[in-house]
Hints:
alpha/beta, Nucleotidyltransferase, domain 5
Amino acid sequence: MTEISTAPTLVVGLGCQRGCPVSTLRALLDQALQAHKIELHQIKGLASIDLKREEPGLIELAEQLALPLMYFSSEQLAGYQPQLSHRSDIAFERTGCYGVAESAALALAEHLAQAPAKLLISRQKYAQATLALAGAA
Length: 137
């Protein structure tokens, strides 16, 4: 039996430096989706760490794409550390978790699907932002 259902819950986790423009986030998203042949309409939501709640670029991206944007605390994200492809000491110093994009993507996919999630696109870095895509069946 295969694990992939016909419509997995796909979500994007994003991390960014303060003041990162929406154009940078959008370019990173478009590039990652194109590279992995995923259509934008398949994405069910965006996620980041609660420290980014006021980040204009993230808010604007969610509005542009008409997608929900959810935030998770570093405590919630810390539990995903064993699943991360990349552990950043800098991210840990600044946020209390080792990888915002991957952790947030996993947290949101599990939250929406109420099922275990896995990383489908590990951390991609571009300019001032990071992105990861997770899915849960």
